[in-house]
Write a structure and sequence with these properties.
Elements: H1 4-17, H2 25-36, H3 48-70, H4 74-96, H5 117-129, H6 133-150, H7 162-172, H8 177-191, H9 199-214, H10 220-237
Length: 238
Amino acid sequence: MLRAGDTSVLSLARSADEPPLTIPRDPAREAARRELSKRMYHENDPSWFQRALNAFWDWVDKLFNAASSATPGGPLGLVVVIAAVLLVVGALWWRLGAPRRGPASSAALFDDRPRSAADHRAAAEAHAAQGHWNQAVQERMRAIVRSLEERTLLDIRPGRTADEAAAEAGRALPSHMDQLRSAARDFDDVTYGGRAATEQSYHRIAELDRALERTKPVLAASASSHSAAHNARQGAAE
């Protein structure tokens, strides 16, 4: 006959023989996912912006490490290379100016207000007296072209550009062809290229304006022969 203690031992023996109580893997994983998805576990998580920023800086760090490992001198060598590149870019920007927004002389030389060559010269001198060299160069170039139109060396044509005016005037005044092209480039650089004019560039255009006033045009036949000789000299120089 079994006593109470024996019954207890027997129960323990049976429980030892039985398999332990377990939960299947998938339901357990799902229960853990539901539990961890509760808001109380994510109150201090970084925002999406912070996560994106962290990912970006991780990418930059990996890129820097890869570049520094491939550069002689390691990180210090990479810094020196970057500084040298920045210096070269800055020097080119200072020397060449901002990139052109479009082709040279893409807009008309004159605005909608018709003015005489004397008016443009007066405006140029006023700008020059104040040190506004960009506007002074623009007005002096307009004075040159308007003066040539008043002398009937150029046809009055709305929408003419500085390059077109220089090319057409060079056929009538071949001895000043190079100076006219240079003046047109100065006008384009100031107006469309984002470059700053200088006092020297203004005085150069002003001197051209005065020289053109004293120069007599050549006949068409003479202009053709002079242009051919000029091209031949350029070809020989090249």
